[in-house]
Amino acid sequence: MNVAEWILVVLLSVTLLIFLISAIVLIIKLIFLAEEAKKIVQTGQGIAAKADDIIDNVKGMTSVGGIVKTFANRVMENQERRYAEEDAARAAAAEEMAKEAAAAEKEARAAVRAGAKVKAAASKVKSAASSAAKAAKK
């Protein structure tokens, strides 16, 4: 090969090297650009979803059905709250009655014990009186 051919081979090799390096850099930049585009698309989808929710809320608040639904929900919440308060009051009353019943049961047991002691003392007095009456007859 002569010198002119070597010069052409070297020039073509350098040109190919430059194109390969620029292609690699371009591919890396495109990958980063695609990632940024993906983030932008996700953000846009989130904004669109929020806008849809806002539109649904506004539509629900301004339509007759939405107003009735809101009113019905509030009435139901008030009733549930009232029923919960009544249930709590009933439970407290039942607990108080159970405490009173337990106290009355204790008092009744104490009275039965006291009555048994009085009965025993009365029978002792009765037997002592009968013994004294027998002794007096003799």
Produce the secondary structure layout:
Layout (H helix, E strand, L loop, with lengths): L2 H60 L1 H74 L1
Task: Please describe what this structure looks like.
With 138 residues, the chain is mainly α. It folds into two domains: 1-62; 64-138. Helices cover 97% and strands 0% of the residues. The chain is elongated and about 170 Å long. The N and C termini lie far apart (168 Å).
Strand content: under 5%
List the uncertain runs: none
Helix-and-strand structural type:
mainly alpha
Order of helices and strands: HH
Mean pLDDT: 84
Shape type: elongated
**Can you give the helix content as a percent range?**
over 70%
Put simply, the count of helices is: 2
* Count of spatially separate domains: 2
List keywords for this structure.
mainly alpha; single chain; elongated; 0% strand; 138 residues
Write a brief caption for the model.
The chain has 138 residues and is mainly α.
